[in-house]
Amino acid sequence: MELFNIFIKSAFIDNMVLAYFLGMCSYLAVSKTVNTAFGLGLAVIFVLGITMPINWVINEYLLGENGLFQTDLTFLRFILFIAVIASMVQLVEMIIEKVSPALYNSLGIFLPLITVNCAILGGSLFMVSREYNFGESVAFGLGGGFGWFLAIIAIAAIREKIKYSNVPPALRGLGMAFILTGLMGIAFMALMGIDPAVYTGTK
Amino acid sequence: MAETLVQDVEKKGTFEFGKKERKLLTDPLNENNPITVQVLGICSALAVTTLVFPSVVMAIAVVFVCAFANLFTSLLRNAIPKQVRMIVQLVIIASLVTIVELVLKAFNYEVYKQLSVFIGLIITNCIVMGRLEAFAMANKPWQSFLDGVGNGLGYGAILIGVALIREIFGKGTLFAGSPIQMNLIGANNVSTQYWINTAAESGIGTFFSWYSNNNLMVLPAAAMFIIGIMIWWQRSKYPQLVDVS
Questions:
Q1: Which of A67, B44, B67, B188 is deepest in the core (most CB within 10 A)?
Q2: How far is the CA of A29 from the CAs of A35, A164, A170, A197, B29, in angstroms?
Q3: CA nearest A163 in B: which residue?
Q4: Which of B91, B101, B228 sits opposite A175 (nearest CB)?
């Protein structure tokens, strides 16, 4: 139940895109059509769900004071985290290419993009600063990825429709996407302050 | 490999600063701005812009990382194999960001706490990565260095601009947290109240005592609106920037 709370909280209340502005670059660049947004969203859920527990293990058993080297190596955190993410993305790319070439072709360009998606590294850093344990970090990774997925699908659908509206020329495209994201952020704010633990009876 | 490195340094010759170099510095400030035109580096930027002082720190950090990552990548550009270039670039960036983090932690712990994970997120800031890919991998070190400084400044300009609007209207202060903190407007916080009272006693008047802080400006969404409006303004001034799609 605790894990379910974290999942709900990271997906809706602390949404990566709409509350923390993480993963904004690919969110704005790849949200022109729903199809591509869907593929990228799935890939982000997957990568976030994998890298989060791996980074947790590294942070706890390699870099921590009670880890393998018995010394505080946390200053190496950035380099190791980003190396894990880069290699995981590479690995995911290779696996998808072998298992399902069709999916690989539809995702193709967007997979390497995930390496520099701030939501992935940001998720790992949030995990460290919030001191999650292993199970919580898995739930947080999946929940954060799911929230990102929902946000990019929503903006892509809106942008597909708004093409037919009479927007001032200078505001078309990027400017409108910014303002829409702001409005969506305010809408998501309605969920702020809700504590899932109260409703599931764990508190 | 080492020979090409030395040759590069020799070919570079003097650090000339002509028209082309000046363009590298000033272009990103407006017509090729990393945020409003290239759409890079929005990720780590927006959440820190509620106050001006952390934004200034963030801007300095990005200028530093961007400039030196460009410089080192450009020096190594002939030695990096194409297949692993992403990881090499990320390692360069991550080391520089670690330096920034440790320096900030040592000198200003308050701001370090405030920026929290966002310093680390400079690693995945698309500006740094994007400039390495687009410029440093194909240009000489000195030009790459200038390009890095220019793009860092272009990013910083937007960041500080947004922060100015958000802090003045959202909190009624300016440079809060820094040695030159000022309370400008608003009757909500105690120190401002004191300032207004003393101003009234000394006869300056209470021009802004009616103002209560605009909480919308503190929300992250406000940053999106402000940047959206900046883009609107910039594109109506420079119609060639409008994208047709």
A1: B44
A2: 14, 19, 18, 36, 21
A3: B245
A4: B228
B236: tokens are 């109506």
Q: Could you read off the pLDDT of B125-183 as tens digits, one per residue? A: 778 888 888 888 888 888 888 888 888 888 888 888 888 888 888 777 777 766 666 66
Whether the per-residue pLDDT at B11 is higher than 80: the answer is no
Contacts of A23 in chain B (CB under 8 A): 43
Q: Does the pLDDT at position A108 exceed 70?
A: no
Residue B220: the pLDDT is: 79
> Bridge partners of B183?
B173
How many other CB atoms are there within 10 angstroms of residue B164's CB atom?
A: 16
Domain limits of chain B? Answer: 39-163
Q: Which of A163-172, B43-52, B91-100, B198-207 has the highest mean pLDDT?
A: B91-100
User: Are the CB atoms for A118 and A101 separated by under 8 Å?
Assistant: no
> What are the pLDDT digits (tens) for B115-130?
777 787 788 777 888 8
**Three-state DSSP state, B124:** coil
Closest in A21, A77, A175 to B46, CB measured? A21
- The answer to whether the complex's ipTM is over 0.85 is no
How many Cβ pairs closer than 8 A exist between chain A and B? 144
pTM of the model: 0.78
CA-nearest of B156, B223, B69 to A185 is: B223
Residue from A14, A24, A89 whose CB has the most chain B CBs within 10 Å, to mutate:
A24
* Residue among B98, B223, B232 whose CB faces A175 most closely: B232
CB contact under 8 A, B87 and A121: no
Residues in Cβ contact with B119 at an 8 Å cutoff, skipping those fewer than 6 apart:
B58, B61, B97, B100, B101, B104, B112
Contact B117 A181 (CB under 8 A): no
Test A78 with B227 for CB contact under 8 angstroms: no
Asked if pLDDT for residue B186 goes beyond 60, the answer is no
* CA B171 – CA A59 distance, rounded (Å): 37
**Residue B222 and residue A75: Cα distance in Å, rounded?**
34
DSSP conformation class of B179: T
Q: Pick B221's closest partner by Cβ from A79, A87, A182.
A: A182
Both tokens of residue B210? 């009616």
